[in-house]
Amino acid sequence: MASELYNTIDALSREKGIDPQIVVSAVEDAIVVATRKYYKTQENLRAELDKETGKIRAFAVRTVVENPEQVEDPLLQVTLDEARKVDPNVEVGGELQIPKPTEGILGRIAAQLAKQVIFQKVREAERDTVYNEYIGRVGEIVNATVKRIEGPDVIFDVGKAESRMPRKEQSRLESFAMGERVRVVIVRVEKASKGPQVVVSRAAPELVQHLFQTEVPEIYDGTVVIRAIAREAGERTKIAVMSKDKDVDAVGACVGMKGMRVQSIIRELRGEKIDIIEYHEDAVTFAEKALQPAKVSRVTVLDGQDKHLEVVVDDSQLSLAIGKKGQNVRLAAKLLGWKIDIKSEEEKRQEVELQMSALVPASVTPLENVPGLGEGLIEKLTAAGVTTVESLADMTPEQLEAIEGIGPKTVEKISLAVNNYFSSLDAGEAAVPEEAATEAQEAPAEAIAEQPAAEGSDNPAVEATGEAEPVEAAAVEDIAAQAEESGEEPAPSEEKQG
User: Fold this and answer.
1) Which of 274, 204, 207 is nearest to 235 (CA)?
2) What residues contact residue 305 under an 8 Å CB cut-off, 6+ apart?
3) What distances in angstroms separate CA 401 from CA 54, 110, 483, one per listed residue?
4) Are 338 and 308 within 8 A, CB to CB?
5) Which of 136, 190, 121, 139 is CA-nearest to residue 162?
6) Would residue 347 be called left, alpha or beta, if left means φ above 0 and alpha means ψ between -120 and 50 degrees?
7) Packing angle between helix 4-16 and helix 20-39, nearest 10 degrees?
8) How far apart are CA 163 and CA 201, in angstroms?
């Protein structure tokens, strides 16, 4: 029959939910501490509780050695001869237990010390029990009662332990009152100096999943499966669902008749927006669905291995696709598990044009190919680093005038010559010598050369050869302009040619 002391220990163990042997060990350790304090000794002490009588015996334990020379510490070792005076059956290497009287020696201070040791051991056992119980329940939904509010944290009672919900695990839409019952998710169990800390959350995606399982029978029985959830608590949640039965609409089942099912979940989450999306194995189709309510023009897989998508939307849909502070595209990327780049049609068009211009090599045309630029002018331009028609066309009048020997009139002649050159290219004409141009006409070159270049003539041959005239005239005017800028009069022969 167990003693009254042991029955008390057993009752305490059941109340605290711990093993009775842990409490027995705590009592024995307490007696050892009190005995050492009373005897003021450094001996190796041990205590034992007799379950039947309730008595606790204390012993000084010493190791048995054969010779006196082997005794290094008399408090911890004893020779074989000395040991056999107490216990005739002891052998070398064994332990000798020397009883230490405890009755009547445990005064008030020693008893208080023993009580503290027992409570400490029991608390440690409680912590281990709580940790072992809740570490295996991470991710589970539990009903909790608001116990108190400590600053930004909310303390809940979850049964055998208190749990803490820090600010980052709360929804910004929610506030709690004392005694209120809510559903929370156990997210982790931390070991702390004050005991295991159970951390719970109302912001975890598992809470939304649990609510859908509760409200939607098709999810509970497995007909509809939740494939992915992306959530920003208090703002918006995107949930991807698919049906295993072709006759069951997954999205419709989650929304419910007149939206009753999803509205019930929204009320539980204090008004958080929820987008229910049909899941697709094809990432392109899934991305189009995930970016709702924005309408997507096209989706391109940039890198299948790195899971990178490019999404193009109409210019009017860009802000809607990105969402407030990038929330819509951020949740869609989290739902897909892909990186998403969103571009408008205009941005994509500019990008394609840039790529095309990079692929087409820039044409390079020497200045000599432009009729109307004299040799002297070409030398001046070349000396200034302008060697191609394209670079000349890109220069502004101010840049041209900055070149030594070129004034406003010369700039006009350069502009006229360059414009004529590009106009001829646009018309499909090549810059060829005057003889080649005249040979292209219907009339023979010799016949054309004999015709008078009368102004207003009706002769078609004259009109056909009129294109060659500005070339020589431009060259003459160029010489005249250069002479004018240098302060010299043009030679009589040049005036005559003009």
Assistant:
1) 274
2) none
3) 115, 107, 16
4) yes
5) 190
6) alpha
7) 120
8) 10
Tokens matching residue 231? 């959530």
Q: Give CA–CA dist 435/179, Å, rounded.
A: 104
Structure token digits, residue 374? 């004299």
Buried b (16+ CB within 10 A) or exposed e, 113-122: bbeebbeebb
What are the tokens at 452? 């008078």
- d(CA 22, CA 271) in angstroms, rounded, equals 49
Taking 50 as the threshold, does the pLDDT of residue 433 lie above it? no
Q: Which residue shows structure tokens 């141009």?
A: 437
Q: Output the six-digit token pair for 199.
A: 């951390």
Token pair for 378:
């070409």
Nearest to 254 by CA among 270, 266, 246: 266
Q: What is the pLDDT of residues 312-348, one digit of tens each?
A: 999 999 999 999 889 999 999 999 999 999 999 988 8
Q: Position of tokens 């027995």?
A: 24
Residue range 158-174, pLDDT digits in tens? 887 889 999 999 998 88
Rounded CA gap, 417 and 377, in Å?
Answer: 12
pLDDT greater at residue 47 or residue 428: 47
Q: Which domains are assigned to the chain? A: 4-130 (3.30.1480.10), 141-201 (2.40.50.140), 280-360 (3.30.300.20), 367-497 (no CATH)
Q: Are 63 and 76 in contact (CB under 8 A)?
A: yes
| CA–CA gap between residue 465 and residue 476 (Å, rounded) | 19
Cα dist from 294 to 317, 319, 320, 332, whole Å: 6, 9, 6, 11
Tell me if the pTM is above 0.85.
Answer: no
Sign of CA dihedral 150, 154, 157, 163: negative
> Alpha-carbon distance 360 to 332, whole Å?
37
Range scoring the smallest mean pLDDT among 117-131, 182-196, 219-233: 117-131
The Cα–Cα gap between 356 and 360 comes to: 6
What is the β-pairing status of strands 236-243 and 56-65? Answer: unpaired
